[in-house]
Write a structure and sequence with these properties.
It comes from Methylobacterium aerolatum. This is TnsA-like heteromeric transposase endonuclease subunit. The chain is α+β, with helices and mostly antiparallel strands and 224 residues long. It has 2 domains: 3-138, Trna Endonuclease, Chain: A, domain 1, CATH 3.40.1350; 159-222, Arc Repressor Mutant, subunit A, CATH 1.10.10. It has helices at 44-55, 106-111, 113-125, 135-138, 143-152, 161-172, 179-184, 190-203; strands at residues 3-12, 25-31, 39-41, 59-63, 69-72, 77-80, 84-90, 95-103, 129-133, 206-207, 221-222. The strands form 4 sheets. A 4-stranded mixed β-sheet has the order 4-7-8-9. Strands 1-2-3 form a 3-stranded antiparallel β-sheet, with helices on one face. The protein has a two-stranded antiparallel ribbon with strand order 5-6. The longest helix has 14 residues, at 190-203. The two termini are 25 Å apart. Mean pLDDT is 87; it is low at 3-23.
Length: 224
């Protein structure tokens, strides 16, 4: 389960000389079951991004200390450090790839589009991938709400191995995987089926369409 702590005062951290884009302050800590250490976030938009990244089945790791990159601002070279670096699993090739990420409001992106376009170009020339996320994608519903539902049930020890195996067995037997059908088939009571199914979604063993708000009639499918 993700936990968040917020300090009443802004905490100074991550200060680096000659880095005009250093992350000088954070507002809280984001902790989730795959991370060894809590991840600092600054602003609720960054928190919303971390929620989505934490439950994405292909995200292996989230790092807040991405490698810096030099970019030309039209007058001189500057050093820029992306907000986060994601490690993604490429399932077909069984390899991993890394993506640099910035999180901005759509207004900030519109005002600084030239800057981030130049940064993106420099990343491509170094063989890196750079993505910018705004509230238009991060706060799209019901995707954000679904991610929070999954995150609330994610982690080791929250659901018994017995319940997880029963839901896995239902998948193997071809039982129609909605929570209501599992309850009607006697697999598990609804609260336990709910917790086990979403825990398996967080593990990447099950999936559902994020375009529909998760409920008892949501179709669940196994992942290859």
């Amino acid at each position: 389960m993700a936990t968040v702590t917020c300090a009443p005062l802004v905490v100074r951290t991550n200060e680096r000389p000659n880095d005009s884009n250093s992350r000088l302050a954070h507002h809280g800590w984001f902790q989730y079951w795959r991370a060894r250490d809590p991840i600092a976030y600054r602003g609720m938009l960054a928190f919303d991004f971390l929620v989505l990244a934490a439950v994405h089945p292909d995200v292996v790791d989230i790092r807040q200390h991405a490698r810096p990159i030099q970019w030309w601002n039209g007058r001189q070279w500057e050093e820029y450090r992306p907000r986060y670096e994601l490690t993604l699993a490429d399932r077909p090739t069984k390899t991993e790839r890394r993506v640099d990420v910035e999180v901005l409001s759509s207004v900030d992106l519109a005002q600084q589009r030239l800057k981030y376009g130049r940064i993106s170009r420099e990343c491509r020339e170094e063989g890196r991938r750079f993505l910018v996320f705004t509230e238009k994608s991060l706060r799209a519903e019901p995707r954000q709400t679904n991610a929070r539902l999954v995150l609330a049930q994610a982690g080791e020890g929250l659901v018994s191995d017995h319940d997880l195996e029963l839901v896995r067995g239902a998948v193997d037997q071809g039982v129609s995987l909605t929570l209501n059908d599992m309850v009607a088939s006697g697999v598990l009571p609804y609260p336990r089926a709910y917790a086990a199914a979403l825990n398996l979604v967080a593990r990447g063993e099950l999936s559902f369409r994020p375009s529909r708000l998760f409920d008892g009639d949501t179709c669940l499918a196994g992942r290859a």
